[in-house]
Known about the structure:
GMP Synthetase, Chain A, domain 3; 3-stranded antiparallel β-sheet
Amino acid sequence: MEMIIDFPGGTRVDAHMGQFTIATDQPVMGGGANSAPTPFATFLASIGTCAGIYVLGFCQQRNLPTEGIRLVQRMEADPSTGLLTKVELDIQVPPSFPEKYHDALIRSADQCKVKKTMEHPPVFNVHTTVTG
């Protein structure tokens, strides 16, 4: 698996994966144009959207309506480092959603690959290669 990261101008940094581009930028106060989420905001969104795809799949497999279901993600960070210390996912369902599936929704969200990767982080190897 490979992703190409490039610098299209200003403080933008884009990631290219196949036919998709994920654009990031910095806020105005950080010297950017605020034209896209920051890389860290994109990372945070990957947690909730990953859990969400598992919740969606659970509902679709059982023909359960997804209208009115949403996930609310709350984060806490260490003020001295800015690093995450806690992530909470609240799966909110409408009153009509069958109660017998509440715990199963939690178990489905727990299958999120982003969450599992954070629980068992990969080894990072950063290096420089001269090309051209």
